[in-house]
Here is the input.
Amino acid sequence: MDGQNQEPSKPIDRNPMAENGANAAHEADSTRTATATCKQGVLVGTSTNGVMAFQNIPYAQDGGRFKKAIPPMAWDGSRDATKPGPIFPQSSRPIVMHSAEANGGAGGYVELEQTEDAFRLSIWTSSTSASLPVIFWVHGGGYSSGGCSMPTYDGSQIARTKRAVVVGVNYRLGALGNLYMPGVVDQNLAVEDLKMALAWVRENIAAFGGDPDNICLTGQSAGAWYVLALAVSEELSGSFSKIMLMSVPGSGPLMEEDATELATSFMKHLHAKDQQKLFSASVEKILHAQRSAARDSKHFGISFMPNVSPELKPDLIGQAIETCGSSVPLLDGLVSEESAFFISGLADVIRGMSESERLAFVSGFGDDDPSQACEDYADEEDPYVKMVRITTRQLFGLASDRLLEGFSNSYGYRFNRKSPNPLLMACHCLDLPFFFDNLANWERNDMVSGINAGEFEELAGRFQNAILTFVETGAAPWGGSSEDKGREIFE
Here is the structure.
């Protein structure tokens, strides 16, 4: 069953994240081992305060650089699933908090391992014998960073509600996942990785208390884009029951011309005289060439993302509406000042621009009519805020409007809680800590630094409850209205 006719569950008592050393020590003392059996063998994870976590689970294995992954191998005995697994190579250096025991007697932050064989997923569940809806989480990161092992995507607090099982997945990033070179590189590898992960989840999630027939494809930013790429796949028809998108970009897959130009620049920066260098170059050199090629691009946001193919059409938003707009419930979320996340460092520069320079700035974000866009926000006096609102509309807002109008069973929200940082306002990614309800895991992030803990918990409770109601029932707990495309406001 898909659970769409169930009554919404009531929120249970919340268990806030540890706020001091004593609470952290108590949580560590209450951690025990937990076991589950998937098709490959027995997994030994952890059970902490009512939540079981199974990490570093292989859903596939490396089939070679720039080649499709292959099915995972079984193992004898049991596999340790108690610690975060590796992530795919990226220029950023995500960190994770290790306990003193796990880190050889010295607690603190350590970098996550990076490897080309990071076909891993993580699962958080309250029971291995239940049949709960499944949140299939696809992380964002501009198509070039992130991973399911990052503490910011820890699904413990969601699982603790006993209303859903959370599955976070890795997929190949950057050029290693999306380089366009027909005949040499298998196409759109990151999408293929996610298909394999979803297949693994459908085959195994019942052993972790999840319902394989009640999966909500969920992603944020680039992850939301990938959710749409999965949703339009004919081979995945019937593999999911709902879609939730957080800040989905409106761009389509790369056209052949842009993908070829990016690949040519990549090869130049790799100093590759022939294609063999693709397979022999070190990961460090691959990442350096990837960064350099992205910087050379004349368009904002052009990166190593999937390209147009027989499966992915140029207008991905329209394709998703045509493919599943009449059959799959949609929850679409927008943050009010998304692009402040990207351009806050340019605030003083923007404020010093001439009007013609601001028009050129807007056109760099792909706006076909920058003059009209600026006119639409003529009442905004602060040039920086004006540019944030225009570019937010262009990058995210127009796509969100189309989806809410195109899906027959759609619900939307606008997240309007402001960051304590006045330049960031309600920026891209700000809804994530509220969704995962794990403020402590974001303590090193400037956009939530200084936020009031009590206010956070109150809004996180309302926000998470609304999302979980949709995950359970396929309907959000608010009625649509004509204002702002029927979006519910969270602030």
Remarks:
- Residues 383-406 form the longest helix (24 residues).
